[in-house]
Design brief:
The protein has 176 residues and is of the alpha+beta class. 39% of the residues lie in helices and 22% in strands. The chain contains six helices and five strands. β3 and β4 form a beta hairpin. The relative contact order is 0.16. InterPro entries: PAS, PAS-like_dom_sf, PAS_fold_3. This is PAS domain S-box protein.
Length: 176
Protein backbone atom coordinates (compact mmCIF):
# COMPACT_ATOMS: atom_id res chain seq x y z
CA UNK A 1 0.00 0.00 0.00
CA UNK A 2 1.43 3.38 -1.00
CA UNK A 3 -0.08 6.54 0.41
CA UNK A 4 0.48 9.79 -1.39
CA UNK A 5 1.53 12.47 1.06
CA UNK A 6 -1.06 14.83 -0.28
CA UNK A 7 -3.87 12.53 0.85
CA UNK A 8 -2.87 12.76 4.50
CA UNK A 9 -4.39 15.51 6.59
CA UNK A 10 -2.28 16.67 9.56
CA UNK A 11 -4.00 15.93 12.85
CA UNK A 12 -2.08 18.38 15.00
CA UNK A 13 -1.18 15.53 17.36
CA UNK A 14 2.52 15.09 17.96
CA UNK A 15 4.23 11.74 18.32
CA UNK A 16 7.37 11.33 20.37
CA UNK A 17 10.13 8.79 20.50
CA UNK A 18 12.72 7.98 23.11
CA UNK A 19 15.83 10.05 23.67
CA UNK A 20 17.81 6.82 23.45
CA UNK A 21 16.31 5.98 20.05
CA UNK A 22 17.56 6.92 16.59
CA UNK A 23 15.37 6.99 13.53
CA UNK A 24 17.45 5.75 10.58
CA UNK A 25 16.66 5.69 6.90
CA UNK A 26 18.66 5.38 3.71
CA UNK A 27 17.71 6.43 0.21
CA UNK A 28 19.06 6.08 -3.28
CA UNK A 29 20.28 9.15 -5.13
CA UNK A 30 16.74 10.00 -6.22
CA UNK A 31 15.45 10.02 -2.63
CA UNK A 32 13.63 6.71 -2.75
CA UNK A 33 13.82 4.84 0.54
CA UNK A 34 16.07 1.77 0.49
CA UNK A 35 16.14 1.14 4.25
CA UNK A 36 14.10 2.19 7.29
CA UNK A 37 14.85 0.94 10.78
CA UNK A 38 12.22 -0.25 13.23
CA UNK A 39 12.11 3.14 14.98
CA UNK A 40 11.38 4.88 11.66
CA UNK A 41 8.60 2.39 10.97
CA UNK A 42 7.09 2.64 14.46
CA UNK A 43 7.17 6.43 14.70
CA UNK A 44 6.03 7.09 11.11
CA UNK A 45 3.40 4.37 11.35
CA UNK A 46 4.29 2.90 7.98
CA UNK A 47 4.96 -0.74 7.23
CA UNK A 48 8.31 -1.54 5.67
CA UNK A 49 6.62 -2.49 2.40
CA UNK A 50 5.02 0.98 2.29
CA UNK A 51 8.41 2.65 2.60
CA UNK A 52 10.89 0.71 0.51
CA UNK A 53 10.98 2.27 -2.94
CA UNK A 54 8.75 5.18 -1.92
CA UNK A 55 10.04 8.76 -2.02
CA UNK A 56 11.37 9.93 1.34
CA UNK A 57 9.12 12.96 0.89
CA UNK A 58 6.25 10.67 1.92
CA UNK A 59 6.92 11.83 5.49
CA UNK A 60 7.25 15.51 4.60
CA UNK A 61 4.91 17.62 6.72
CA UNK A 62 3.11 20.36 4.73
CA UNK A 63 4.18 22.93 7.32
CA UNK A 64 7.88 22.35 6.56
CA UNK A 65 9.30 24.96 4.18
CA UNK A 66 10.46 23.41 0.92
CA UNK A 67 13.45 25.77 1.00
CA UNK A 68 14.94 23.75 3.86
CA UNK A 69 14.76 20.57 1.78
CA UNK A 70 16.18 22.35 -1.26
CA UNK A 71 19.08 23.55 0.88
CA UNK A 72 19.55 20.02 2.23
CA UNK A 73 19.50 18.46 -1.25
CA UNK A 74 21.98 21.03 -2.53
CA UNK A 75 24.32 20.26 0.36
CA UNK A 76 23.99 16.49 0.02
CA UNK A 77 24.46 16.50 -3.75
CA UNK A 78 27.54 18.65 -3.17
CA UNK A 79 28.91 15.86 -1.01
CA UNK A 80 28.35 17.55 2.36
CA UNK A 81 26.47 16.58 5.49
CA UNK A 82 23.72 18.70 6.94
CA UNK A 83 21.87 18.94 10.24
CA UNK A 84 18.31 20.24 10.24
CA UNK A 85 15.30 20.42 12.50
CA UNK A 86 12.50 18.73 10.58
CA UNK A 87 8.82 18.24 11.29
CA UNK A 88 7.75 14.92 9.78
CA UNK A 89 4.31 13.57 8.98
CA UNK A 90 3.25 10.12 10.17
CA UNK A 91 0.94 7.95 8.08
CA UNK A 92 -2.14 8.97 10.07
CA UNK A 93 -1.37 12.72 9.97
CA UNK A 94 0.35 12.97 13.33
CA UNK A 95 3.67 14.84 13.30
CA UNK A 96 7.04 14.25 14.92
CA UNK A 97 9.97 16.65 15.15
CA UNK A 98 13.52 15.42 14.69
CA UNK A 99 17.06 16.72 14.56
CA UNK A 100 18.18 15.11 11.32
CA UNK A 101 21.78 14.40 10.40
CA UNK A 102 21.87 13.68 6.69
CA UNK A 103 24.98 12.48 4.89
CA UNK A 104 25.84 11.24 1.43
CA UNK A 105 26.69 7.54 1.12
CA UNK A 106 29.57 6.81 -1.22
CA UNK A 107 30.47 3.88 -3.39
CA UNK A 108 33.92 2.35 -3.63
CA UNK A 109 34.82 4.88 -6.34
CA UNK A 110 33.84 7.79 -4.09
CA UNK A 111 30.72 8.67 -6.03
CA UNK A 112 27.49 9.40 -4.18
CA UNK A 113 25.28 6.32 -4.29
CA UNK A 114 22.61 7.43 -1.84
CA UNK A 115 21.95 9.21 1.40
CA UNK A 116 21.77 8.25 5.07
CA UNK A 117 19.74 10.05 7.71
CA UNK A 118 19.93 9.56 11.46
CA UNK A 119 17.35 11.45 13.49
CA UNK A 120 17.32 12.13 17.18
CA UNK A 121 14.88 13.72 19.59
CA UNK A 122 15.32 17.48 19.21
CA UNK A 123 15.64 19.99 22.00
CA UNK A 124 12.21 21.69 22.27
CA UNK A 125 13.86 25.08 22.86
CA UNK A 126 15.68 24.78 19.53
CA UNK A 127 12.48 23.96 17.68
CA UNK A 128 10.97 27.13 19.14
CA UNK A 129 13.97 29.02 17.74
CA UNK A 130 13.71 27.61 14.20
CA UNK A 131 9.96 28.09 13.91
CA UNK A 132 10.01 31.87 13.30
CA UNK A 133 12.31 31.41 10.31
CA UNK A 134 10.41 28.38 9.05
CA UNK A 135 7.17 30.37 9.32
CA UNK A 136 8.64 33.19 7.19
CA UNK A 137 9.89 30.73 4.58
CA UNK A 138 6.61 28.86 4.45
CA UNK A 139 4.59 32.07 4.19
CA UNK A 140 6.72 33.13 1.23
CA UNK A 141 6.21 29.77 -0.47
CA UNK A 142 2.45 29.99 0.02
CA UNK A 143 2.27 33.65 -1.03
CA UNK A 144 3.55 32.88 -4.52
CA UNK A 145 1.04 31.47 -6.99
CA UNK A 146 3.79 29.78 -8.94
CA UNK A 147 5.31 26.85 -6.96
CA UNK A 148 8.85 27.13 -8.38
CA UNK A 149 8.78 30.89 -7.85
CA UNK A 150 7.68 30.33 -4.26
CA UNK A 151 10.55 27.96 -3.65
CA UNK A 152 13.04 30.39 -5.18
CA UNK A 153 11.68 33.29 -3.12
CA UNK A 154 11.76 31.20 0.06
CA UNK A 155 15.33 30.05 -0.63
CA UNK A 156 16.31 33.68 -1.15
CA UNK A 157 14.74 34.55 2.21
CA UNK A 158 16.78 31.79 3.85
CA UNK A 159 19.95 33.18 2.28
CA UNK A 160 19.03 36.69 3.37
CA UNK A 161 18.25 35.59 6.93
CA UNK A 162 21.64 33.93 7.23
CA UNK A 163 23.37 36.93 5.65
CA UNK A 164 21.56 39.30 8.06
CA UNK A 165 22.93 37.25 10.95
CA UNK A 166 26.38 37.05 9.33
CA UNK A 167 26.28 33.28 9.73
CA UNK A 168 26.61 30.26 7.53
CA UNK A 169 23.80 27.73 7.77
CA UNK A 170 25.98 25.50 9.97
CA UNK A 171 26.85 28.40 12.27
CA UNK A 172 23.14 29.29 12.50
CA UNK A 173 21.92 25.76 13.24
CA UNK A 174 24.51 25.26 16.00
CA UNK A 175 23.89 28.70 17.48
CA UNK A 176 20.27 27.87 18.25
Amino acid sequence: MRLARSTITPTGRERVFGEDEIIVSKTDVTGKITYANHVFLRVSGYAEEDCIGAPHSMIRHPDMPRAIFKFAWDRLLGGHEIFAYVNNLACNGDNYWVLAHMTPSRGSDGSIIGFHSSRRVPDRDKIAKVLPLYDVLLAEERRQLDRPAGLAASAAKLDNALRDQSKTYDEWIWSL
